[in-house]
Amino acid sequence: EKALVWLRRDLRLYDNAALSHALRESKQVWLAFVFDTDILQPLLKGELDSKGLKHDRRVDFIWQGLKQIDDQLRQSGGGLIVRFGKPTECIPQIAKELGVQTVFTNHDYEPSANDRDETVKTLLSKLGIEFETFKDQVIFEKKEILTNSNTVFSVFTPYKNNWLKTLQEKDLAAHDCNPKQGQYAPIPKKLDLPFLSLESMGFCPTGIESYLPPGSEGGQLFLDDFLSRIDQYQVGRDFPAIKGVSYLSTHLRFGMLSIRGLVREAHRRMLTGSMGATIWLSELIWRDFYFMILANHPRLATGVSFKPDYDNIIWESGAHAKKLFQAWCEGKTGYPLVDAAMHQLNQTGYMHNRLRMVVASFLTKDLGIDWRWGEAYFAEHLNDFELSSNNGGWQWASSSGCDAQPYFRIFNPITQSEKFDSEGKFIRRYLPQLEKLSKKTIHAPWQAGHIELEAAGIVLGRDYPHPIVDHDEARKKTLVRYSVVKKVT
Ligand code: FAD
Asked: Which residues of this UniProt protein bind FAD (predicted)?
């Protein structure tokens, strides 16, 4: 009769599978979110501001999303229970205090989250409380899309074809989350603490809302904007200087928008012949694909290559490697597109997909640095960090993953720049010191003549670094480095 909905990465009050089931099956429903100290404590390491607080855009973004949910629930007579602690302690405690019969939540596909959920389930059962979980953040999960011989796919295109063939209207139907009068019950006094502040958890406001409006409201604004451009997605999506993509990844990451809603929009337009919508839907299917891969290969969360042979590669090491890696992190490689991309990541927490591919290829195949270093840096800095897609993306770029690019396909950072930022607009946005270079030389400033550099007011090594590696030499070195895996590719 009474239920608790435990929100995690589904921060919305509409079309939410767990919430819908709770509302359907219970007279009174409460909602809770736990800022997990096991996840947050490691984030608190490193540089702090003058008040001793940590700048983390994601924690701020989640916090603002939760505030929206709390405001909405308060208007219906309820409220959101927010705690800072271990979910394995908080959830059973809150459930017991509320006297609920069931805790409802949505599936997660990360191994550590699954272990946590198993523990919570066991602890709840000792209290006589049920734990019910639902598919919510993907259209098809785990083993729902299989090959003809009932095995899990590891190649994207046949997976996608099967995914599209399997899709039915019911898979996209929204879960009804309209509460009945009084169903959102007030939080009992004992549990109704003042809304937790960011500062009390050790974090500071980051201003992320000025360019990424949080919550379902912010997500809807971005979605409406994107839907007015979706038909041109295939034209602009590869050009980072253009507003060609949706920028919805962070809202999706935290479930502020429903994947079913997005797929519905894309699929409907695909059926009426929109090429942009067709390609965009394919990107959403990549997201399902990587969740499916992680769910079926949990070992990927331990840092191993999808193709085991690739763990024989010997990467650069020692002080030399650390220096190269640091230059990459700080956007000081001397390759403007790579550097501009890293500045975009460091300044905003976002990086365009084309650039993620370029910088990942550069790190692994130009600098010879282990992809796991890059994966970890992205995990720390991306607002939309998603273990499954991040690992998939990095292993794709390093050629060690499922359906990865062949190891001998090595991006040339200069031609990528000439092709996808031909005017140098994106580069100029993040590297203003190169502003005055022509669109011809901005992609490789060291190739500019003395006169042009002088006219642009640039001294290489002072205003902008010399390239830290020579691409052609690096390419040759990489082919040798990867020769240990030649036979399996
Ligand atoms: P759009 O082009 O508008 O795409 C719409 C949505 O489709 C995205 O929001 C995302 O949910 C999904 N999507 C698009 N491309 C991919 C893809 N290749 N794989 C999986 N899902 C995709 N995406 C993340 O969400 N989190 C990550 O941590 C992440 N790390 C990446 C690391 C590398 C090295 C690479 C190459 C890619 C990574 N991606 C990741 C995928 C992709 O770059 C981002 O999803 C995309 O840039 C987000 O911007 P958008 O929302 O404007 O994308």
From this structure: 233, 280, 283-290
